[in-house]
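Q: Hi! Curious about what C-terminal of Roc (COR) domain-containing protein looks like structurally. Here's the sequence.
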Amino acid sequence: MLTDNHSFKRLVLHGADVSAFGAASIEAMLTVNSTIEELSLELNPLGPDGMESLLRPLTGNIGNPPANMSIKHLTIGENNIGSRGAKAIAEMLRTNKTLKQLKLQCENSIGPDDVCMILESLRENKSMTHLDLSFCNAVQGDEVLIGIMDLLQVNPWLEDINMENTPLEREGYSLHVKAQLQKNKQEHIMVMRDMPKGRPSSARVFLCGHAFSGKTTLTKSMVRNIAVKGFCAKICTPLVEVIEQHKPFDFFFNDPNGWEKRTRGIDVNILVNDDDRKISIWDLAGQEEYHAFHDMMIPDLSSQGNPCFFLVVCNPFHMKSNGEKSLEEIQEEISYWLRFIASNTKRLSNFQSQVAIVMTHEDKAFGEIQHVENIVLILKDKFAKFINLSSKLHYVNAHSSPATKDVTNEVIKSCMGILDTLPDAFLACSKMRLALGEWNKEHPDQPIVTMETFNNDIIDKKIPNLRLPIDHNQQGLQQKMHNIRNVVAKSLKEKARIAVAKSLHDAGEIIYFEDEDFVVVNPNWFCHKVMGRLIKLRKHVTTNNLTTTFKHGIGRREQIEHLLNISLKKTIQYDGNNSRDITKHLICLMLKMNLAYEIHPIRSDSQRSSIFVPTTLQFDDGVANGARRLQWKTTFPQEAEIIYIGRRLQCCDQELTTLTPGFFPKLQVKLHNYFANLLATHAICENEQNLVKIWIDGLEILVELSGHMMGHIFIDILVKSSKSSFETLSLVDAHVVRQIETLCSDAHGCQGVALVKGILRPKCVERLLLCKNRKDQVVLVENLKQELLAANLDSSYVHPWGEVDVGEEDMDYLGKSMDDSATSLLGAIDTKDVFERRFQNLKELENDVNNLKLNSNEIKASSENKIEASSSEINYSHQSCDHNSEPKFSSAIASSSQASLSLEEDPNLDLQLKSKSFQTHLFMKLDRLEKHIHKMGDKVVAEVMEGTKQEIKSMEKRLQEVMEKTREEIGCLEKRLHRKLVSKLDAIINLSLQLQQRQVPCNVFFTTVGAHHQRKLIVSEMSVMPGMFKRVHLHLLCEHLQGIHVVENQVGDVVLLASSARAQEIAPLVIRGLTIFSLLLKVGAHVAAGIGDMVPDLGKGVALALDTQCLSKFLPDFGNSSSGSSSSMSSRRRDPGRLRTPNPSPNPSSTEEEATSSGRDAFLRGRTPLPSEEAAMRIANENIGAEQWLVNFLKGKDISKLFGLSRVQYRNVQRRSKTELGPPIRWVCNRHRQEGIDDGSLVDCPVQPT
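A: Let's find out. The predicted structure is below.
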């Protein structure tokens, strides 16, 4: 036994039928074995008891470590562990200090609450580095997402959380998890995790609102009020200036002089109380041109305990006309800022943004204020999962300090409450914030300082813990040892200083880059004075006879430096440095922050370069309205086969989040830099307003931002290619989509936004329809995958596109195009994912059928289809079907010298379901290349990229082979499941004793006669109610043991629906027939059963309209596991994402299709909970009544003539239930009867007269 073996390092029991009893044996082994480091127990019926036994040696208790401290890698999955098993895992993770990797792949017996419990147990675990939750359907919902993000905020030791093929990944949230993991791996985070912590002491208040909403006036009144509350103003940053206008604002304000100051950029007030708690008030400029810079100030609201409170300020009056705004305008204005806040904040429980709404101009008496209060309550519920919106609406006169007291009190109370509830923050960061406030107070004219000043005058003087030790170059052994310790301490202190500075940079409190000589200690100055000044260059600006302008977003570098130099000389002190040096560094900061990029001259002898600043591009109404006409520029050879592909990236929660105004300008810079650095010799990248044009090695790509005036903002990627579909999609995903997704999840992107991918209609891409015309010509990738799943991977399935509003010429062109094949739209990689999901769904269904608990009239399920595991060294087989018998391993184990023991099923069976996708592998390779590109020459980069292209071509061929093999395996599994379902159908639909003895046929379905005398299946119990149809046709299925099916040309019999009582009587039979058809459909046996033509629009992916509540009438025991297992399929929390979409499909559908689709989705998502005892009794009585009606209806009828069925008894087949007196009796069609008589497998068994 392994208890005596001390050479094994790895034990793999994959699909080895290890039960709870076997787990007890493993527990005994692990208690004494101290050499095994890796244990894998996937696909074993451990159950909760087995999991508790297995983890007992790995779990410690108070004062005592675990008995086993050698296991480093533990793999479990598909073990039916349930909530009790999850609880055992959580308890183990709280106490185990040696386990490094835990894999919970495909463990679908647990729910989201169980996942949250496991995540919570990892908050203080410092040993775990890898957590694998791939293919786990419970990884879904807001609670799980927030649990993961909360965990990563407090546990920087976790290096990877694999969320492959989970609902959260399908909704786009795995990117945010990966971004946080990457951030945790950064050196400065690694340095900080061991630094001392304390209570957070700093909070920020942001005033958001459109121009002329009264934010600046409200800020001044609040500052006066806060001073009374024990806070004192440490600094009131003088960043408010008059914006030059050609005419006065007399008609804007009641001020007779007509001039009013407007905030350009961001105005900041910092206040500190006696406890050194700081509140900084940030007044965000309302003018649209400055919205693009707001992301700079709030890139990471949750960074190191820096919470935020938002005041959304709204003026209910139009400034030009002085008339009241409509309620719709007010709601849209408030919603704009709520979406902005939600899009910029992470999904965290402790850092959820607090928001309050303030309406100004109380003195003008807005008449609809009560309706605005109702709007606030509606928005509070709408945005609840992203932000905490106060239900109280503040209506104030911003000029009056007394009138703003309630707002001030809520701000102080909320900020202090947030600081009290937050987890501890790093003390060095808190002290650094106070030090920056002191510096800005004492040196308001030095918003940018040298690195030397930053280190010596701010860090060393204000934060003693980060002060570098003084070097002493004295002689002597003891002094030399002291010097060595000083060198080590100095190195650690330097790393700590850098870590704190980078943390504050992430939080938007400073602008810091380690390789720069200057630090911006007042970022709002940078936004206001530097970027705000550049915005003015949209028009000609003349200074000292030098005209500076931006044309198409491009300006000469020396002209920009000259302009900034003159402008900044008047406002800041240069700290003893040359002003031109500072302006050069400011431009470098712009480049590093992805606010601009440099265009180098084509001629090598030219010293002049230009700067492209996307935010200086002129605004165009046609672009915003989606009316820009695009054109393809590339001409390919005539022999080339041209394809057109379109992808769309949009927000998962379009009503709650949006791509902020600053996102696309940063994306333009990021894409340009990416292609310029990585593909310098292969790509060209050009930018226009809201548009990126890319030419790369046989591809022309247009990336367009649209939707501003159409309700929702999205990014369309339009591709014209001479390459294959696989290679085109691989290149686009790797070089474009990945860049967009990583920027979105970055701290300086849109952290609250999850992007989902859609597929554009190819003909719209080829024709380059206007954005406003193609906006609805899209299907989400997840929707299309579900359609293909519902069509049982039918390769001929086509996606129907909706109507498009275009001109006559475009309509003629589009009218010639047919609907597109789903597999061609998805591409090979996504189609492979659909195949894998189908395979996994069938495997789960097979497991459920195998564990089916039969009713009291049935024998217990036999232990069939046991997996026989084998290995090259050791043979293992079941000696008994009894789960209480211990598996007998070869005695050779005890003396074996092998380092690994593996008892697992055929590795090809899972068809690489759990392997990293090719796409992931490609992304990782490009990430490594991008990270180390500065160390490589152009030749090396070109060789790597050429190798990548060859790898893509090779992978295309391998992928086709894998998909073909997967299709074959799915076919075999569907046939096997079909036979198993037929064998257990009586148990599934809970037949009465009389029907189980087959006195009459029992498998019933109903049809009506449609157009052209074609039968149409009734798909709802409501369809048999009076008024729907006067008569329906009753049909019976052939009950052949090898597969039930519809009898061809069956006449059937007519049932008159004369009363509601009759309809209620037969309604359970309608649902029974639909249940059988749905099960056949789910295992892909609908075609073989002959029901393909009868299910409405099955070829178009619309399956049965089956209400899950109806299933409980006939499936009360379906999914209950056999004795010994506490998990049941009815209680399993299935993946609603498997057949659920983040957003409804943009294509309109009829009411009938929606009802049919929703019923199909409900069934395929999972089962209904078991009914209550009272309901179960009522359902049982209804079933008995319906069955008795069927017996009476068929009594005396010629079943052979009407239905083409004969009663037969099978020979040499064991009985299937206790109610059967011998071999099974069934009603079969004439063909199967004759075949059985000919081969001797059955004999006639007519009904004996009573």
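A: A fun detail: The longest strand covers residues 387-395.
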